[in-house]
Design goal:
The protein is an alpha/beta fold and 414 residues long. The chain has helices at residues 18-29, 46-56, 77-85, 88-119, 130-143, 158-168, 181-184, 215-218, 240-254, 277-287, 304-307, 325-332, 345-348, 363-374, 377-394, 397-413, and strands at residues 5-11, 35-41, 60-62, 124-128, 147-151, 173-178, 194-196, 226-231, 261-266, 294-298, 312-315, 337-340, 355-358. β2, α2 (46-56) and β3 (60-62) form a beta-alpha-beta unit. α1 packs parallel to α2 (46-56), α5 (130-143) packs parallel to α6 (158-168) and α12 crosses α15 (377-394).
């Protein structure tokens, strides 16, 4: 065994989504005297900028044959077709062709992987994300190289759930790190390989005393206005429709006083989704006559200056969200959290102490929780302070990375 374990971290999330940000902290706090990291990504973007700033720029391997999403468009005309400027059948043909080309590239990547694994003398593959763990397991099998999975998703389809369970049983997959107990429940094979380690952050990166807000100034929000906001990918399963409908209930209850509140969504719909969900939400807001209280900022590379100006954070996922980073980031900003009692949200938020959780899908309960916090400044403050203390005590990226480090070194020494 070499003095340092050479680890190939495979990551397909190149923007600033949860998987990429979580891996960033692991790479930042790894003991480089014991672990020599290489990071494989499909292209350079926010994630690679972040790790380059930590002095790991020379360890980045860009592999174009490894797409950030299997649905990645391969033709410039695909977006034009999606906008309705070409017949829908043409759009479907282009989309199917893109998927087939992406799969073909992945097969080529696997076939050529021995040159990478042997060339870099990799001891261990660390797969971060859904596509990364499938590809990582196959590459590990082909190259007789041990693999660690970091599972950050709860698969919603039977075929994907069966696939990851089957691949997890491969002997080369040594450990499966899950971000919550809710995430671990999807595995019915290889349960002896499971380890639960929560997502971690550096609380000082989300210190409200060190970040200057821009939201109120950018959108001319009147002083004293209470802002309820959410951050993340704007896709159907994230449940933003519940936020809009709960906002309608809140506004009906407040009557004329609704002018002192704003609802904010920071994020957009990724290009590889078939429908523009953000556009749908804008139409729903218009239909419910909520345009004067709603703000859609679109994608923001750094969400912290927007979180800074929130008073209440709302997480609207109605499916078993594995362990949303946005929740612990909001808690680090001393924000009380409103959400549904599902998935890893239950493990992140202490109901009644750091936030208020409602029955899954209950718009009325969520609206009541919002109203309670809108009308009680002291409750907002106490829950916010408790949330920040919970983050510092339970979700420290530095401390959680030490646990991950032990797993990496333990597998390397086997």
């Amino acid at each position: 065994m070499r003095s340092k374990a050479r680890v190939l971290f495979i990551n397909h999330s190149v923007r600033d989504g949860g998987p990429g940000r979580s891996l960033f902290y692991i790479l930042k706090y790894l003991d480089k005297s014991r672990i020599d990291p290489y990071v494989l990504v499909p292209r350079k973007d926010v994630f690679t900028d972040m790790i380059s700033n930590e002095g790991l720029g020379d360890r980045i391997i860009v592999e174009r044959k490894f797409p950030d999403n299997i649905l990645r468009p391969r033709f410039n005309t695909l977006n034009v077709a999606h906008e309705g400027k070409f017949p829908s059948v043409f759009y479907r043909i282009l989309k199917i062709t893109s998927v087939l080309l992406n799969v073909f590239d992945l097969v080529l990547f696997v076939i050529m992987s021995p040159f990478l694994i042997r060339g870099k003398r990799i001891d261990l593959i660390y797969s971060n994300g859904t596509l990364a763990k499938i590809v990582g397991a196959i590459i590990g099998f082909v190259n007789y190289c041990p693999v660690i999975w970091h599972v950050r998703n709860i698969q919603q389809t039977r075929i994907l759930r069966f696939t990851i369970n089957l691949l997890s049983s491969l002997p080369v997959v040594k450990k499966v790190i899950c971000v919550s107990h809710a995430t671990a429940k999807q595995f019915y094979y290889s349960r002896d390989k499971l380890v639960v380690i929560y997502n971690g952050i550096d609380a000082e990166d989300f210190n409200p005393d060190k970040v200057e807000g821009v939201l109120r100034k950018e959108y001319k929000v009147p002083e004293g206005t209470i802002i309820l906001g959410s951050v993340g990918r704007v896709v159907p399963r994230k449940g933003y429709e519940y936020l809009v409908r709960a906002a309608g209930v809140v506004c009906n209850h407040l009557g004329k006083d609704k002018s002192r509140i704003r609802f904010v969504v920071v994020g957009d719909t990724p290009y590889f989704f078939g429908n523009n969900h953000l556009g749908y939400l804008r139409e729903l807001v218009k239909k419910l006559n909520l345009e004067d209280v709603f703000i859609f900022t679109g994608y923001r590379r750094d969400v912290r200056p927007y979180l800074k100006d929130f008073d209440i954070f709302v997480i609207t996922s109605n499916y078993p969200d594995p362990f949303p980073r946005s929740v612990i980031e909001a808690m680090a900003f001393s924000l009380p959290v409103v959400g549904f009692r599902v998935g890893g949200i239950v493990e992140a938020v202490e109901d009644g102490v750091t936030g208020i959780l409602s029955d899954p899908g209950s718009v009325d309960q969520m609206a009541f929780a919002m109203l309670k916090l809108i009308q009680d400044r002291f409750l907002r403050s106490s829950m916010g302070k408790a949330g920040r203390e919970r983050v510092k005590g339970m979700f420290s990226a530095r401390e959680l990375t030490r646990e991950i480090e032990k797993i990496i070194l333990g597998v390397d020494e086997e």
